Amino acid sequence: MHRYTELIDRAAAFVLHVLQEATDRTVQALQTSAATSLVKTLQMIELSKATMAINALKHGRGASYDALVTKADSLPFRIKRPGQHFYDEGDVSEVSTLVQVDDKFVLGCADVIRDVSEALYEEYGPI
Description:
The structure is a single chain. This protein has helices spanning about 5-30, 35-50, 65-70, 105-125. The chain has about 130 residues and is mainly alpha-helical. The protein has one domain. Helix 1 runs antiparallel to helix 2 (about 35-50) and helix 1 (about 5-30) runs antiparallel to helix 4 (about 105-125). The longest helix has 27 residues, at about 5-30. It is flat, with a radius of gyration of 17 Å.
């Protein structure tokens, strides 16, 4: 197998590309149909991104969430603040997560995973 650090960026880009293609097809279909299955498809796509970023689908409010809220304005991603119900009201694809998982967030997670993998490789060699 190739080094994990060489594959993570490609894997994230591939998954995001496939999900974007599915989103585009679904949005196009929504132009002529308001079928519930199409809305569920958009929500499934967003949930797929959230679960791909591992901790984005947080278990709920707690100490880590409270720490994020205090830094919310300086974070490179959006978090749902106390009392906030939606990131973008009217966006039928939105799923309920405490961290908004968009492509930039997923790619940022891939960067962190790659950096950690490189550090582990440098410290311990191939695993």
